[in-house]
Amino acid sequence: MTTQHALPSYLNAEDLGPWGQYLKQIDRVTPHLGSLSRWVETLKRPKRILVVDVPIERDDGTIAHYEGYRVQHNMSRGPGKGGVRFHQDVTLSEVMALSAWMTVKNAAVNVPYGGAKGGIRVDPKTLSKGELQRLTRRYTSEISLIIGPTKDIPAPDVNTNEQVMAWMMDSYAMIEGNLSTGVVTGKPISMGGSLGRREATGRGVFVAGVEAAAKRGVKIEGARVAIQGFGNVGGVAATMFANAGAKVIAVQDHTGTVVHSGGLDVAQLHKHVAEVGGVKGFPGVEQFMERDAFWGIESDILIPAALEQQITAAVAQQLRTKIILEGANGPTTPEADDILADKDVLVVPDVLANAGGVTVSYFEWVQDFSSFFWSEDEINARLTRIMQDAFKSVWEVAQEKNVTLRTATFILACTRVLQAREVRGLYP
Ligand SMILES: NC(=O)c1ccc[n+]([C@@H]2O[C@H](COP(=O)([O-])OP(=O)(O)OC[C@H]3O[C@@H](n4cnc5c(N)ncnc54)[C@H](O)[C@@H]3O)[C@@H](O)[C@H]2O)c1
To answer: Which residues are annotated as site, described as Important for catalysis (predicted)?
Structure first.
């Protein structure tokens, strides 16, 4: 696709990174937006970008500076919502794309949020716990100008967790001088977190997987599942598929790949990862492989649940699977999407498959406002219903328009966002 884009000066047109991937996805949905397409440029520009310097004192007395970001892509449907990522490869292009995918995702499952995302360019494994706390608190203070319970609500993403959210909430509460429980989600239960939030994304991936499998005539019982990433999303999805009788035949993380055609013992693998920090060295498996060989493993369901741009055109050629459930954000490039469509692989896109996390984040936020907390069963049941309904709506659009599930999700979501944009009108 050769559509030209008016690019902001801070992007490198030669290397757009994940933002370029997102722009191509918008190009694909635009012909389906009818009269709303006059507003489509709104989706190609983040509403607001904040780049901050985050200095901390290291334990050895030196001063280190890190680059931090918060991007609010679109707020037509509600306050910004999206995670915070701590990773050495975080770039502005990546945070922009992740914020835009949050706009689409929140609209796809119809929760009343816009899209936002944040990140710090840091490898948190190189920091002590004290340094990590200082980094988180200073970052929160720098972005406190634009976040807040009714403005923009961060949550965990890669390498951030309940503890990081607790520090964020406490820092924001100190600055504001009030409780501010609803400023972040994914908090510990003891300070206003929601039951079921930790597992929500993986659970949502599983629910979407059950729906997709039914459409493809794949039985979950005995289905061969391969997973890249064994963290919050991949690890929980692995447990849920294994509990439902599927065989998790391969898991890859940043340390290595483990494979067992008879099905890995997922509970034992969790213990191993908790002890040594990765899947590498897990005993009793059939083989460890070259990193790229992972993509050639034959499976029924493949779950990329690590980082973006993993399934490139070359990887897509290699894949031998029936269904891809995108636990990660942006794991598949548009070129790979075309190859997978030709190969008749059913791709359940990130903006649908991993929306369970933000859905329960929404429940957490609602519970915080009323200080009235729901049971885990209630949360899981509501989550399952929202995921099933969203899948059904997307499937219908895909059938009606004869498009992939990704384009169908974008049609549904972008229509909702741009309808809100249009009815609000432009200020002033
Ligand atoms: N946590 C959430 O609620 C949530 C919600 C929606 C989407 N996501 C997306 O899911 C993905 C994973 O997030 P998470 O919260 O599980 O993160 P996490 O930090 O808990 O886990 C990340 C996993 O990816 C693995 N990994 C990292 N680099 C890798 C590499 N080069 N090759 C193979 N594996 C690698 C890590 O070893 C780890 O197992 C991200 O794309 C994130 O944006 C997360």
So the answer is: 157
Residue of 95, 104, 157, 161 to test ligand 1 pocket, by largest number of atoms within 8 Å of CB: 157
Closest C-alpha to ligand 1, atom 31 = 254
Q: Do 204 and 347 belong to one domain?
A: yes
Tell me the three state secondary structure of residue 9.
coil
Full domain range(s) for residue 71: 46-179
- The residue nearest atom 33 of ligand 1, judged by CA position, is 253
Q: Is residue 117 among the annotated active site residues?
A: yes
Specify the CATH number for the domain of residue 60. 3.40.50.10860
Quick one: which of 129, 47, 35, 42 has its CA closest to 80?
Answer: 47
3-state DSSP percent of the chain in helix, strand and coil, to 5: 50, 15, 35
Token pair listed for 175: 């600055």
Q: Print pLDDT tens along the chain (428 aa).
A: 456 777 888 898 899 999 999 999 999 999 999 999 999 999 999 999 999 999 999 999 999 999 999 999 999 999 999 999 999 999 999 999 999 999 999 999 999 999 999 999 999 999 999 999 999 999 999 999 999 999 999 999 999 999 999 999 999 999 999 989 999 999 999 999 999 999 999 999 999 999 999 999 999 999 999 999 999 999 999 999 999 999 999 999 999 999 999 999 999 999 999 999 999 999 988 767 788 999 999 999 999 999 889 999 999 999 999 999 999 999 999 999 999 999 999 999 999 999 999 999 999 999 999 999 999 999 999 999 999 999 999 999 999 999 999 999 999 999 999 999 999 999 99
Would residue 384 count as lying in a domain? no
For residues 163 and 264, membership in a common domain is answered with no
Catalytic-labelled residue, pool 117, 187, 247, 322: 117
pTM tops 0.85: yes
CA of 329 to the centre of ligand 1 (A): 9
CA of 8 to the centre of ligand 1 (A): 29
CB atoms within 10 A of CB 294: 22
Hey, how many other C-beta atoms are within 10 angstroms of the C-beta on 67?
15
Return the residue whose CA atom lies nearest to atom 43 of ligand 1. 329
How far apart are the C-alpha atoms of 137 and 211, rounded to whole Å? 41
